[in-house]
Amino acid sequence: MTTNRGLYIHIPFCSIKCAYCDFYSVAIDTDLVERYAKEQKKELSLVLSRYPQTVIDTIYIGGGTPSVLPISILEGIVGHIHKCASVNIREFTIEINPCSSDNLAYYKSLGVNRVSIGVQTLNPQILKIIGRSHTPGQALDALERAAGIYPNVSADLMLGLPGQNVEDVGCALNKVMPFVNHISQYMLKLSDDTPMGRAVNGGSIALPDDDASADMYDAGYSIMRQNGYARYEISNFCKDKNYSLHNLKYWNREDYIGIGASAHSFIEGVRYENPSDLTSYLGGNHLGNGKANSIILSKGDALFEYIMLKLRLEDGFSIDEINGLFGIDFLARYDMEIKSLCGILEVSGGRVKMKKDKMLLESYAARRFLPD
């Protein structure tokens, strides 16, 4: 019996690291890139040999900055996927930086049918503060070119940036929307261990407060809704049901394989994490060799994770489904929690979900279901 699984390929290389970024990435180096791609192919072959029933139905190449890779390297990685895996691709996404978008058209020949472009903001001063190397014009040019090539184009935007306000958000959306059918609108989550985090802690940079960031989110949501974009997850909006099929696997707790340094996997109920260290990864410490960190969730932890992830979705989750999966009576087991959340949680029609105007309180609501 075959099992559909998503495939995430992590590319840790960047030409420049953004001031807010705490994802694992390193400066691009030709020798490292070639060695890394070779190790990724090895890892994928080994993982698939253990799960031969796998059919890859979504591919997501993320990073880092995948678009800085030489075409020959990407060709080799994609060719190896088709060589060693059974594939039935519904969606193939690659992340693009506006400054490295020259090969936009070529990715289509690799089977890519969806691109995600990192815009973040169209305010030039804020772009400089957060360490982005592109200009607003370069971002819009990349979006326009992508829209002429691909049926599905997504733009990443960020909220809560230094000096940002509601007007910035509206301006960016109005300029971006003509070219895309999917928008990810993320709140800035800043780690102390980043240049911007240290600057904020040191007082040289100020961030909008939570209320101002929430106002930006609400303003963005309102603009997108008025322009035909439906929210399907807290931070994700699309037209005509052009969801990110790969990312839906994460929120629905479906299987996916992550290949590369710092990549995560979820296979048959077990979570795996490769080391966030290139030297360690190149030394063979990864899922392929059985050397990834593994986390086997208890039933209580898996139940909490299900609730936490599903509440991120606009449609929440089915009571019948959660009862069947975990052998519980959800309404009876969580009667007190549900009553305490009556102002932000909606229980109706056999489903549990966040009220539409309370989505930003999802983390608060989810914590009420933490196991004892």
Structure description:
With 372 residues, this protein is α/β, with parallel strands linked by helices. It has two domains: 3-251, TIM Barrel (Alpha-Beta Barrel), CATH 3.20.20; 299-367, Orthogonal Bundle (Arc Repressor Mutant, subunit A). Helix content is 37%, strand content 24%. The protein has helices at 30-50, 71-84, 124-129, 136-147, 166-176, 195-202, 210-226, 245-251, 278-282, 299-310, 319-326, 330-333, 335-340, 362-367, and strands at 3-11, 13-14, 26-27, 54-63, 86-96, 114-120, 152-159, 182-187, 230-233, 236-238, 256-259, 264-267, 270-273, 293-296, 317-318, 345-348, 351-354. A nine-stranded mixed β-sheet has the order 9-10-8-7-6-5-4-1-11, sandwiched between helices. A three-stranded antiparallel β-sheet has the order 12-13-14, with no helix packed on it. Helix 1 runs parallel beside helix 2 and helix 5 (166-176) runs parallel beside helix 7. It is globular and about 60 Å long. The two termini are 37 Å apart.
Task: Identify the notable features of this structure and list them briefly.
372 residues, alpha/beta, TIM Barrel, Arc Repressor Mutant, subunit A, 2 domains, nine-stranded mixed sheet, three-stranded antiparallel sheet, 14 helices
